[in-house]
């Protein structure tokens, strides 16, 4: 007799694939045993059943990626012993090859970072590559990078073992049950209703529906931008002498992975120009299904794949498989609590890595649900990072074909997406094009990255890990900021007006700094959670008695808005308005910024009349704009919030008047290099939700004696009471002016590895590459320790001497800013 569905459960998980069973397993392991998994067909019937089962690290460039991967690898290696069901895990090894110097350099940069985080990847010779993978043609290979502990598992076996592990701890799993509705009341998920009308009430709903998640979420008003695409692999007939323990081979030059499969060879494609599948919705009755292969489209990619293993051309084809896999717009999963519904969580969009990353992601989400906070940095995977624009049919249609190739191809630090562009354009876009802007995409925004002398030159001639063709133009922008004056379009900055009788109460409890300040004052502040860990860093400006302006980076738009809305208490009145689309932000910075501004306004711009960290309404030509005297580049200047209808006119006026002062347009590369010289922090890039303001060097923005306190006060007070921290963020400058820094480079003190850089850039004023990063010592990171230490940075395997500093190396007394 079929077991009846319960009428209530503490957590209901929708979807019985790898991620759904992983989430159930980890919730139960944390003690939440009243868990129900609802699978519309059979476990693994969506995409899990046809996954390749690779348990390989790839090139991982964040701590979070490393933690998610290593958790899964370690779990799958031990799960069979726990449950008694095989997982098929075998550590056959993982070999990545490089056939050009750029790829070798990239991997030499990443490998030390991965080793720091528990992944035993090391460089080997072309001859060793050939020995490990004798069936391959390694004649063009310059180096390989081998991880012996990596390998493969059987996707179905892994999922069934996880399901048993969850059941052993009390979870219930029901197959053949379709969820038709996520029930909600007052903005909170309250349960699910099945297709036959049965309802289960619950404290937590978790969407783990794979490629069906987007349409299920949409039915409840939840934005989950992901799209299924055709994914191919070919399996040859048996190959004599092919070892069952052949390592998994990844070759970015052919966009293919290779592994043994039942005596034959599997060639798995991640080809450029992939085909989206079922843009209008995944059929509800699709299970254990295949897609008819498009031989004409895929044949050229197969030919390229075979070039690495040419001897197999004479072996017959057992199977050309095509099945759907779901992908997200930035190739990072969708994880966390949805901004649209409280207590509705999601884990989907694993980008064909559902087995590889399913365990780590399930573990993160389980802790998030049980503890209230994620255990790792989730700024790059949080579901609240996207807008509804990213889920439109047209966007998914256009971005989808680029995603598979982007996963497996060669990577560069500044290479972005080419498809589905121009989603958000500043009112100044055409003016910036005429000024020679090369645009990068940032969270949907077209953002000037750097400026060429003419529009025709605004292109990357060749992507590289070394100096590119735009490097000297960027250096000129940087020098203009330090010596003359620059103009920057910063319209992408997110801007919220918060007003109402309880606006001050809301801002005060969110902000570590004091925001109950006179009208017109700007306050830089951190927002933290109850554990004292970052949720945002931003500015709060008091515009009136009950009115504030919150300005934050575009990468934190959704998270900041969600946090504000979630912390309005019952009965409070605080209205939050996103005013970003209506405001064009134009920044004017540099030693000559005041001289320029005095030519375009009748307002007194002197230091006495317009002090640092204040805001005024000023006239600029015909127009009234809000001017904020604040900086993220370390120079005198103002951020002008201009009504978008006046943006072009104001920009033209500033450009015309600015010629006399050497005014130059400047882009994001210059913003980064300027702010790194000043050691300014940026949430989501340098600091994240695992860090705290004290160790990050932002203790000046934390007012522990603030009346009424703030969220996270007690946690930060405890950290502060411990004295000089043993973990601390420092600024570094390479003593050799030639190497470049991008982030993830390891830091050594007296020959001992003590940390890594979060981000890097080139300090044209300081005369070398500069970066910031956390170091952890056995003793307090004191001024004497920093000054007297022998510091080195690992750049692609080479130890480069560096200087380190607690205070900003450029203008530590802030004389340039406050003049």
UniProtKB/TrEMBL annotation:
Residues 428-706 form the GCVT N-terminal domain. Residues 12-368 form the FAD dependent oxidoreductase domain. It comes from the Bacteria. Residues 371-426 form the FAD dependent oxidoreductase central domain. PROSITE patterns: PROKAR_LIPOPROTEIN (PS51257). The keyword Oxidoreductase applies. It holds the Pfam family FAO_M. Residues 728-811 form the Aminomethyltransferase C-terminal domain. The keyword Transcription regulation does not apply. PANTHER family: PYRUVATE DEHYDROGENASE PHOSPHATASE REGULATORY SUBUNIT, MITOCHONDRIAL (PTHR13847:SF193), SARCOSINE DEHYDROGENASE-RELATED (PTHR13847). Belongs to the GcvT family. This is 4-methylaminobutanoate oxidase (Formaldehyde-forming).
